[in-house]
Amino acid sequence: MKKKLPLIFAVAGMLFMAPGCTDLEEQVLDETLQANLSPDEAANGLLAPVYALLPNLFQHTTYFALNEITTDEAILPYRGGTDWGDNGIYLALHQHNTTATDPNVNNTWGTLSQSISRSITAINGLKNSTSATAALYTAEARGMRAYYNMIMLDMFGVAFVKDDPNAVSVIIRGEEAVKYIESELLAIEPIVQPKSVVGPGRLNQVAVWGLLARLNLNAAVYRNIYAPTFEFRAEDMDKVIQYTDKIIASGQAKLSPDYFSIFGNQNHSNQELIFAVDQRSDLNGHNRLAYFSISGDQFPLAAFPAANGTDGPGITSDFYQSWVQAYGAVDPKRDPRFYQENMSVYSNAADTCVKDSDYKINRGILRGQQFGALRVNGAFLRCPDGRLKVGKLSYVTRNRADLPVSFGEIVDFTTAGSNYNTGYRVAKYEFGSESNTGRNKGDADIVILRLADIYMMRAEAKLRKGNNAAAALADVNLVRASRTATAPPPALTTMNLDLLFRERGFEFYWEMLRRSDMIRFGKYEGKWTEKTNADVKKRIFPIPQTAIDGASNTPGYLVQNEGY
Predict the structure, then answer these.
(1) 3-state class of 483 per DSSP?
(2) Inter-CA distances, 27 with 24, 242, 559, Å
(3) CA nearest 422: which of 413, 435, 431?
(4) CA-CA distances (angstroms) from residue 177 to 149, 157, 195, 497?
């Protein structure tokens, strides 16, 4: 039986247990479970598991929840008093009251731990490989181990050093962890291939440069996570500028004229992507970033009347108001990153019949009354000519036909603020075209790094080193001006750190960067809807109690983070 990346490889150890082609010819790694493998097949089988858990890591209830629902961008109330209660874990996440038994924390830690272990297994297994790919695959596995450790450091304040699968990992923190991760990425930089050869779904040359830039930009945070203010060293900012310059000069990525195509079902070929979770060949892939926020009575696919949303998180009024303040009297939908209307029926209620092939829900931040395919007894209604009948949606599936699917700005943890239709919603990633349930068969690659972030990181480094506002403004405006599929956002006239933070929110909302951005910009201890906790100890998450218990036979080995 043969499976292609990124399907999950069934066997993995736990952390504490002993020539060129074009984009159209990318090599897809196979996980081959059969005897008499060739050296190349065996090498593929060792490397594929290193990437295989990336879709799990980026699930809506793991990496996304921990990095978005903890911020001013996303809030998930106890919907209608019946949905998303989950023993209060999402309320606690948003209020920075998470505990060491939180299942989302535990699952994220476990996925990272397994991925580090798989990387170590691949590195050691490839030592005796006679495949011509052995050196390249070893570099990729080593780089992915560094990437997973970088996420561990960012979220839990620790990294793990381990080369021998039978040895116990050495736990490092702070400066030592930053230097270790940097040295690993630098070691494999000359070996990994260009993006044009392996595509954005594997660790490539520009991805390594991007990770080095991101590491150095956040190094001040990682060195002293609880500091009242962070020391952004000039040498760190120089490295950010160095690596972002290399990426931009290489021409291996280009800004996309169409903002929402970056998150579309065909985005694997979008040139803005640098590094992403490749989901093309994964028929059971992770589609839930599309379904998580929209209504349970929004059915985005004409072919599948069972594929809907779940009324999960909305954006806070605080985040929405940052758009309003930026655009004043102009509706923020003026910005092509905020909203994309896909059919006139949503603004012209007289258009009620739509061909199946033309039916698409809106994208971006969804406000007010929602229109869509009308469903009765599990089937879509049809017009006399057979076209799909589209109209105003109400909460029929919730047995609340009296409640319109009309998203309001205010969402909070009160009974009224937790209703199904509270909070503006986000449909940034396109709904998977083959997702018959809405919870599977994701088409769109999930972005880890894209070129807009490279420009934004360079702008930030220039501001933090010498306050070069003119150069930073030029980078930000270049990104804004690139969205020419519709009228691009107007150019900004000034730039400072607060404006750059706001701009990062507009460009990267729902992309799992908000928590690290808020910490780095000194905003994470602030107040927003239903969140007042100012404890700096909450910048990182608790180490799961299960992990601490599992390491209890070695006293002092795995120590809980402060404040938990």
Answers:
(1) coil
(2) 9, 30, 42
(3) 413
(4) 9, 9, 27, 27
Judge whether 148 and 108 are in contact, CB under 8 Å: no
The CB density around residue 515, as the number of other CB atoms within 10 Å, is 21
**DSSP H or E stretch at residue 35:** none
Report which of 283, 252, 278 is spatially closest to residue 267, judged by C-alpha positions: 278
Question: Which of 310, 278, 216 has its CA nearest to residue 53?
Answer: 278
Handedness of CA 316, 317, 318, 320 (dihedral sign): positive
How far apart (Å, rounded) are the C-alpha atoms in residues 359 and 380? 12
Q: Tell me if residue 351 falls in helix, strand or coil.
A: coil
What is the C-alpha to C-alpha distance for residues 465 and 494, in angstroms, rounded to an integer?
17
Residue 302, strand partner residues: none
Q: How far apart are CA 282 and CA 5, in angstroms?
A: 7
Taking CA atoms, 5 is separated from 9, 32, 205, 310, 447, in Å, by 9, 11, 20, 28, 16
Q: Answer whether 270's CB lies under 8 Å from 254's CB.
A: no
DSSP calls for 423-490:
S-EEE-SPPPTT-SSSSS---SPEEEEEHHHHHHHHHHHHHHTT--HHHHHHHHHHHHHT-TTSPPPP
Residues 6+ positions from 523 with CB-CB distance below 8 Å: 72, 501, 517
Contact 137, 126 (CB under 8 A): yes
Q: pLDDT tens digits for the chain (564 residues)?
A: 233 443 323 223 333 333 233 233 455 565 554 568 899 999 999 999 999 999 999 999 999 999 999 999 999 999 999 999 999 999 999 999 999 999 999 999 999 999 999 999 999 999 999 999 999 999 999 999 999 999 999 999 999 999 999 999 999 999 999 999 999 999 999 999 999 999 999 999 999 999 999 999 999 999 999 999 999 999 999 999 999 999 999 999 999 999 999 999 999 999 999 999 998 877 667 779 999 999 999 999 999 999 999 999 999 999 999 999 999 999 999 999 999 999 777 677 667 899 999 999 999 999 999 999 999 999 999 999 999 999 999 999 999 999 999 999 999 999 999 999 999 999 999 999 999 999 999 899 999 999 999 999 999 999 999 999 999 999 999 999 999 999 999 999 999 999 999 999 999 999 999 999 999 999 999 999 999 999 999 999 999 999 999 998 888 899 999 999
Cβ contact 456:476 at 8 Å: yes
Q: Which amino acid is at 342?
A: N
Record the pTM. 0.94
CB neighbours of residue 465 within 10 Å: 17
- C-alpha–C-alpha distance, residues 31 and 529, integer Å: 46
Residue (of 19, 173, 134) closest to 558 by Cα position: 173
